[in-house]
């Protein structure tokens, strides 16, 4: 079956560095993608989303890039802070034109070292 | 504070017990969801309610029974569970069914002995 996956399960960065978290998807029909952040002991929190008619979208300190050619999604975090330490999930809507039924990836654990 | 409150935060139950998880959202949203989060597995959608009507049942065993008495409350009734049902159960809401931005509660950690 088609699924959302992640290239790396863990990522460790130094405080102040930029972080890049990657996600691969296999369903070419997916038209909507979201990044969620889950801190220890909490539920996932929406970070940023992007539709398939866009290549890039920026938020506060975060940027999501979508490469439809290679079915790749990335989340860039600028000037990573200790509070950014969390598990990051990408999610896709695999059914174009219907109500959203998000499929989540397994997650990447980001650790920010002081 | 996400506006979605789940109780209890932790629950331990035997395989023959009956218990319920409760979720309440204070956001005025029209859709509510139950997700299961197990170790090393992606989030799994269990149920979706839109305007108090169940619109999605993702092949969940009948030992899990959802209830949505109104648009602000969602329950998950648990009966005769198995040890493999131990997981974090997350409730979420969204403005409408179809909105990708989900607002999650902090989850109910369930352990089945």
Question: If you had to describe this structure to a student in words, what would you say it looks like?
Answer:
The complex is a heterodimer of chains A (114) and B (113). Chain A is mostly beta strands and 114 residues long. Chain A contains no helices and eleven strands. In chain A, the strands form two sheets. In chain A, strands 2, 4, 5, 9, 10 and 11 form a six-stranded mixed β-sheet that branches. Chain A is globular and about 40 Å long. Chain A starts with a strand and ends with a strand. With 113 residues, chain B is mainly beta. In chain B, strands 2, 4, 5, 6, 9, 10 and 11 form a seven-stranded mixed β-sheet that branches. A four-stranded antiparallel β-sheet of chain B has the order 1-3-8-7, with no helix packed on it. In chain B, a hairpin with a 2-residue loop joins strand 5 and strand 6 (53-57). Chain A binds chain B through residues 3-4, 32, 34, 36, 41-46, 49, 89, 91, 93, 99-107, and chain B through 2, 4, 40-43, 45, 55-56, 90, 92, 97-107.
Measured between the Cα atoms of the first and last residue of chain B, the distance is 31 Å
Strand composition percent of chain A: over 45%
Q: What is the β-strand count of chain B?
A: 11
Looking at the structure, what is the overall shape of chain A? globular
Helix content of chain A: under 10%
Count of individual helical segments of chain A: 0
What distance separates the N and C termini of chain A?
40 Å
Task: Give a short summary of the structure.
The complex is a heterodimer of chains A (114) and B (113). Chain A has no helices and 11 strands. Chain A has 114 residues and is an all-beta fold.
Secondary structure layout plus pairing:
The complex is a heterodimer of chains A (114) and B (113).
Chain A: E1 4-5, E2 10-14, E3 19-25, E4 32-38, E5 45-51, E6 56-58, E7 62-67, E8 72-77, E9 86-93, E10 103-104, E11 108-113
Parallel strand pairs in A: 2-11
Antiparallel strand pairs in A: 1-3, 3-8, 4-5, 4-9, 6-7, 7-8, 9-10, 9-11
Chain B: E1 4-7, E2 10-13, E3 18-25, E4 31-37, E5 44-50, E6 53-57, E7 64-70, E8 73-79, E9 87-94, E10 103-104, E11 108-112
Parallel strand pairs in B: 2-11
Antiparallel strand pairs in B: 1-3, 3-8, 4-5, 4-9, 5-6, 7-8, 9-10, 9-11
């Amino acid at each position: 079956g088609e699924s959302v996956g992640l290239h790396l399960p863990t990522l460790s960065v130094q405080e102040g560095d930029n972080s890049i978290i990657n996600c691969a998807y296999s369903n070419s029909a997916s038209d909507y993608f979201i990044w969620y952040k889950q801190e220890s002991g909490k539920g996932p929190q929406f970070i940023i989303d992007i539709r398939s008619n866009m290549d890039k979208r920026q938020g506060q300190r975060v940027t999501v890039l979508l490469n439809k050619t290679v079915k790749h999604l990335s989340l860039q975090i600028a000037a990573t802070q200790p509070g950014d330490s969390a598990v990051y999930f990408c999610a896709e809507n695999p059914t174009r034109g219907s109500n959203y039924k998000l499929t989540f990836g397994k997650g990447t654990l980001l650790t920010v070292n002081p | 504070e996400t506006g979605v409150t789940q109780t209890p935060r932790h629950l331990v139950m035997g395989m023959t017990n009956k218990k319920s998880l409760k979720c309440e959202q204070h956001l005025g949203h029209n859709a509510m969801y139950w997700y299961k989060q197990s170790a090393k597995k992606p989030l799994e959608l269990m149920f979706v309610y839109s305007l108090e009507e169940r619109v999605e049942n993702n092949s969940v065993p009948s030992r899990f029974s959802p209830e949505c008495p109104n648009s602000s409350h969602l329950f998950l009734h648990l009966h005769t569970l198995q040890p493999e049902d131990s997981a974090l159960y997350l409730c979420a809401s969204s403005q409408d069914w179809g909105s990708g931005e989900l607002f999650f509660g902090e989850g109910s950690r369930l352990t089945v002995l």
